[in-house]
Structure formats: structure tokens, C-alpha cells
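In the current project phase, we have settled on a layout for protein records. A sample record is reproduced below.
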Amino acid sequence: MSKMTGGISDKEEPANAEIQALVEEVKDQITGKMNASFNIHVGNDQCIHARIYKNLQREVSVHSIEENKTKEDPINYF
């Protein structure tokens, strides 16, 4: 693919901090809502995975929880 001004590049590379911040700002403007997953330490070696949702009115709620996790368990979509 030939490169043209304003075109799309074949080269893939990770976003730097400036690009990531821009994407987050635009994403928030477009959707106005957010889903985020967290690994939360609850004591000893136990963790839970929680998916948190923020709606267009900025109200925050816990969408779902997975129990009996460890710090090393990957967070998968649930």
C-alpha cells in the first residue's frame, strides 16, 4: 500500500501517551459511558474481578463480579 498524505499507514505501532489520551477523550465524548474491569484485592491471597459501568448520566454501578480469583488471574470479559 502506498502512503499518501492523510492516508492510512501499513505500519502498526502502540499508541504513545499523547495519542492514548486523545483516544480516551474522544471515546468519552462519543459514548459518554464506560465499562471497566478491575482486579480487587479483598484480603489474604483472594481477589475478585469486578466490571464497573458508568452511564451517560455519570451514574456508576457494579455490573458483575467474579469471586475466588488471585492477583495472577487474567481479567477476561465476563
Summary: The mean pLDDT is 80. The longest strand covers residues 34-43.
